Prior knowledge:
The complex is a heterotrimer of chains A (300), B (431) and C (295).
Chain A: H1 23-58, H2 63-68, H3 80-121, H4 127-136, H5 142-155, H6 163-186, H7 191-198, H8 203-214, H9 216-232, H10 235-240, H11 249-259, H12 264-295
Helix pairs in contact in A: 1-12, 3-6, 3-9, 3-11, 3-12, 6-9, 9-12, 11-12
Chain B: H1 2-29, E1 36-42, H2 50-63, E2 67-73, H3 76-87, E3 95-99, H4 102-109, H5 117-122, H6 124-129, H7 132-135, E4 139-140, E5 143-144, E6 146-159, H8 160-165, H9 174-186, E7 192-193, H10 200-213, H11 216-223, H12 233-247, H13 260-268, E8 274-278, H14 282-289, E9 293-296, E10 310-320, H15 327-337, H16 340-350, H17 367-378, E11 381-383, H18 386-389, H19 392-406, H20 412-430
Parallel strand pairs in B: 1-2, 1-3, 7-8, 10-11
Antiparallel strand pairs in B: 3-10, 4-5, 6-8, 6-9, 6-10
Helix pairs in contact in B: 10-12, 12-20, 19-20
Chain C: H1 8-36, E1 39-40, E2 49-50, H2 54-59, H3 63-95, H4 103-111, H5 118-128, H6 135-142, H7 159-183, H8 188-196, H9 201-212, H10 214-228, H11 233-238, H12 250-259, H13 264-294
Antiparallel strand pairs in C: 1-2
Helix pairs in contact in C: 1-13, 3-7, 3-10, 4-7, 10-13, 12-13
Amino acid sequence: MTIKNSPIVQSNHVIEIRPSGQKNSTKIKDRIFQTVVLIWFSLFALVIIYPIIWLGLSGLKSNSDFFLNTWKLPEEWIWSNYQAAWDAGIGQFFFNSVFVTLVSVLVVLVLGSMAAYGLSRFQFKGQNLLLVLILSGLMLAPQVSLIPLYKLLQGLGLYNTYWAMILPYVAFQLPFSIFLMRSYFLSIPRELEESAIIDGCNSWKVYRHIIVPMGKPIITSCALLTGMNVWNEFMFALVFVEDSSLRTIPVGLMNLRSQLNTNFGIQLAGLAISALPMIIAYILFQKQFVRGLTAGSVKG
Amino acid sequence: MKRKAGFILAVMLMMSLLVAGCSSSSSTKEEESGKVVLKFLHKWPQPEFAPYFEDVVKEFEKENPDIKIKMEAVADEPMKDKLRVILGGNEIPDVMFSWSGEFARKFVRAGAALDLTPYLNEDTAWKENFIPASLQPFVSDGKNYGIPLRFNGKFFVYNKKIFDKYNLQAPKTWDEFLQVLDTLKKGGETPIILGNQDPWPAIHYLTGLNQKLVPQDVRMKDYNPKTGEFTDPGYVKAMEMLADLNKKGYFMKNVNSSSHDMASQLFFAGKGAIFYLELEEFAEAEKNMKGNWGFFPMPAITDGKGNQNYITGAPDGFIVSSKTKHPKEAIKFLKFLTSKENALKLVKEIGWPSPIEGATNPDTALKEVAEGVDYMKKAEGMAEWLDTDVNAKVADVYLSNIQLLLDGSKTPEQVIKQVQKVAKQIQSEAD
Amino acid sequence: MIKTFQNRRTAVLYIVPALLFILLFVFLPIILNLYNSLFRWNSFDAERTFVGLEYYGRLFKDPVFFTALKNNSLYAIASLVFQVGAGLIIAAILEDKLIRKFQPFFRTVFFLPSVISIAVVGLVWQLLYNPEVGLVNGVLKAIGQEEWARSWLGDSDVAIYAVVAVSQWQYTGYMVMLFLIAMQKIPNEYYEAAMIDGASKIKTFFHVTVPQIKEMILVGSVITVIGAFKVFDEVYVMTSGGPGRSTEVLGTMLYRSAFRNDEMGYASTIGTIVFVITLTLSLIQMKLGKSGQEV
């Protein structure tokens, strides 16, 4: 596998090699190309950023301000909207989302890395079958499971608990994580493990002390991907819990909409609050996120 | 052997997860320190209304220290799904919200709702407290299954300033109504505000139109899932009249993409002349328009085959789960909720019309709300909400097609044909 | 190979916990779903009536099913064109040496919407599409194209396009990121060689970039196409299938049947069909993947 130093990880400019005769005309062409592309991309970026900023600003408006001056800056910056949204339930939903996401991510990482280790290092009969079985979980649509799981969770006495969300989340997130981690683990050189085993380590120790530390980049990427999906999941959270004290943010927001039907400012403040953590997490961790994926997923 | 220890650890982790899951679920059922825990589900999480329920529950718990109420609230639109999701579960609330009519009867047929008749007969004082017309819609096969909390009616509210500008009076007949609309339209006003993004507001028009155009006995037969056919020409006529209002440009533009709440804001801001509102929303209207409004019931349709002295509206209230372990406590709580004292508080604090005899009067309530309740008491009957008074699947055909009717992509005949087809299918399944 | 790694029992022990989760919560429900689809039942009634394959017959006569199928396919096509097609082009341009210094900024911005919950995105766009106060019509008015203004989510002719457009807004940046990651593994020498040959940008794109990352393109196409048949949240949040049934997709149709119309059996039937569709698509993908390797 050849991995070029990528500009995502560190900037690395290509040395320009160009026949000198065409230089001038190419330069003009390049200029035009650059300008056109920059205009296009800037417009696209504006289309993306504007609604997000609008959301944050509208959360500061009073109702009539929102209706009459929808696209202007707030007349009066009502920061208390954010407080009100938090108190109206976002606070509780936020805690629930954090808890459900953390536990799900943790279980996915532990079980996923173990399975990926088992599938990438061991040689045994039926290995391919197991691999196909796990990876085919990638393709299945969650709504197929919606009704059976609803009944199953009731049967297990887990309905309307945090676990009614966590267990299905783990199951649906595992295949992709195993897929990513397995291909990364395959790329970890084996010499270290071999010498460790000669020194008397068992397979568990190899996993704990070699695979997990060396696999950190992909484990981080998986944590972010899983976290993102779990944080934003909607359908299972809608059906598998009923107490408002257990609701996660996406479903809580829908309820908040019908609950605060007459105050758009607070509603939008609530939306802004729930979007923020993922935006911050992404901006903070994007380097690690990209590094893990660059090195792992698809072999070059 | 250390390797095995690791696996045992992992397995134990999983087990502990499952066990923790189980224990946390049973803890909600747990009756802490010998207290009876009642789960109570209502429909008003809005900050305007929720405090009333919190107060009443607190008061009840103070009077009954051995009962604890675990309150939960889901708003109107999600309630329709949520109630079904919950009733399929194993943690059914003891006391829960329900609309009257077929919506409640379906739960009755499935044996999910407790028969409340003995409790009402046992305490005649409680029973006689209710305006009779408010208990009736919760009756199925002669038995009471629900206790009303509100007695809701639907009326056309108008902007007085705009009406005065064109010298208009509240219309008594549909023809007068059309004339009023025409004058408004010609004057450049938006005659009617309607927010039909969630399609129930237009269904409320149809509720009244169906009732006024179809003979009572035929309509009752059709609304019963076992005998429904919907072949009376009145159903098509009702849809045509609704579609006409739109075709003639009496409704505001883009009815399908504004929500009812957004439409309310527009009306309160004076952007339209007429708005079809429920009694429970009158307080909000007064708050925003400060006396600059009046109301009238849906005008009579001269050649309509239905009874013209009906009012559109229905009570909504609570049913008790048939699986409740504490029926006595649940009834006690319902009696508390519907006591005269709390009914007065309900009328005063949140301005809702109460089904308790004498609770909604000009002293306690807004003048208009009291008048509205009078209309309902004097009426010969109620046209209950079409979307909760017929089988869910018929309601679904109505609800989803009413938007298509209003954006012109379907004709009344096409919609009714589909209603008939679904009604037939339901009949075959009921056998 | 070392002996430690040939112990089958140990290997299985590592895999079993994850496998159990997947079997119990992903595979078992598929079988239960098939069984459930043979009965008429609802969530709150203990009674079940065996109806055999009746629901399957009804489904194939239900016009809403075909609307949903059409909408899901529209989702798939639009996602292929915008997320895979446009995403690929955008990624290639971002990798161009003239643009590369702006790459970190654009890459971050483009990816941003995909980290936001669909519930939030849906609720925001519902307001942006609002004909009275929404930005979309406001912009059209500002650039003098008022006749294009629509009641976007309230008009059954355009609502589904409006909903699909939001998904493209949200996820194109995600695919751009995946393609960038794949492109950065292409050895520099290939580009240098192309440059010395005097190949144009477009030629380089088709002869170097695309063949080098074709595996990622395939994976991306599969993710988006299968994803198009898993759609639920955005439709539920923005239109819940309306106006009429014009934006219904299989996911919302299933939910509506189960929890609004009290037909759990019918909902399970839809579930089974979704399973068959995604399974077929996966099999096609595997076949394509194999032939791709052979080439």
